[in-house]
Amino acid sequence: MGAFMPNLPSSMRKPPPQEKAAVTLEEFLDIVPEMNVTSRVLSVLWVLRNEAFDMRPLGYYDEEHFVEEAPQQLIRAFQEQLACISKAIERRNESLTLPYTYLYPPNIENSTTI
User: Fold this and answer.
1) Do 12 and 32 meet the contact criterion of CB atoms below 8 Å apart?
2) What distances in angstroms separate CA 25 from CA 19, 28, 32, 34, one per listed residue?
3) What percent of the chain has pLDDT over 90?
4) Residue 89 CB coordination number (10 Å)
5) Alpha helix ranges (H) inside 17-66
6) Which residues fall within 8 angstroms of residue 3, CB to CB, at 6 or more apart?
7) How confident is the model at residue 12 (pLDDT cuts 50, 70, 90)?
8) What pTM was computed for the model?
């Protein structure tokens, strides 16, 4: 939806019309951003929306940061809680037309990276 510039213009070169009236194509093109600006914005949005190829889900680590038993137990307990939450969301999604995926633990990045 946002990739179609008239739905979500990144900027406007003139103020929007004050009254609801027919707008000519020329007036419309004078208001919306130029093609190169829209192209750059869409390129940035494309990069930001793509999942990272090295995405690590919340609660899972490539390396062992803690070697002591106490932190490892906490990490395992956290991973078990995440698994329970995931199963609850999966069960709830079975009855939904459009599944809920936003706070589904496997879809949450372990750290905030762009």
Assistant:
1) yes
2) 17, 5, 11, 14
3) 32
4) 19
5) 25-31, 35-49
6) 42, 45
7) confident
8) 0.56
Q: Pull the structure tokens for residue 108.
A: 């949450």
Closest CA to 57 of 19, 1, 98, 108: 108
The span from the CA of 99 to the CA of 36, in Å, is 36
Calpha distance 70→78 (Å, rounded): 12
Task: Supply angle C-alpha 45, 47, 111, rounded to 5.
Answer: 105
Q: For residue 15, which of 38, 31, 29, 36 has the smallest C-alpha distance?
A: 31
Half-sphere exposure in the Cβ direction for 7 (13 Å, CA): 5
Position 81 confidence tier, pLDDT thresholds 50, 70, 90: very high
Q: Residue 91: its pLDDT value, please?
A: 97
Looking at residue 99, its pLDDT comes to 94
Map residue 109 onto helix, strand or coil.
strand
Would you say 110 and 61 are in contact if contact means Cβ atoms under 8 Å apart? yes
